[in-house]
Amino acid sequence: MSAFNLRDLTVLIVEDNFNFRFLLRNVLQAMGVGRIEEAADGDAAFRLLSTIDCDLVITDWKMTPLDGIGLTRKLRTSDESPNRFVPIIMITGYSEQDRVFEARDAGVNEFLAKPLSAKALWTRIATLIERPRPFIRSENYFGPDRRRRQFDYDGPERRKGPAGEGEGRS
Fold this sequence. Notes:
This protein is of the alpha/beta class. About 30% of the residues lie in helices and about 20% in strands.
C-alpha cells in the first residue's frame, strides 16, 4: 500500500446502521482520516453536505427515505447540489453486476461489497487519489468517466474522426 497522509481529509459516512457507521468510523480513524462526519440517510447527508466541505462520501446503498443511489444522483444533478464532484464510494451487500452498473451509471466513483475489509476500503481511497477519473457531462449523465480501461485498438471497426469519416461506425 502507498502511504498517504489523510489527516486533512473530511469524510462523510452515510449509513443507516449505527454499528456499521461505528465500524467505518474506526477504520477511517485508524487510516488517519482527520475529520469524519456521519448521516443516517441520504436526505440528512445532503443537508449536512450543504454545511461542510467534504472530500469523500462513503454511502450505503439501501436506506430510507433517500438511499445511496438517490443521494448520488441528487449530488451529481441537482441545482442545489453543494458539490457535484465529490468522490463517492458505494458500500453494499448487493454486489450483482447489474447493481454495480446501476451505481456506476448514477455517478458513483468506486464500489465496495460487504463484508468489507480495511484493505479493500484503503484500496478504493488510494484509487481515488492516485487515479482520479475526469468527470463527463452528456445529455443523460454527469459523473466520473465510466470507462476504467483505455484500449489502444486500431482494427477495422475503429472510428476514425468525425461522423461519416473513415471506417467503422460513426
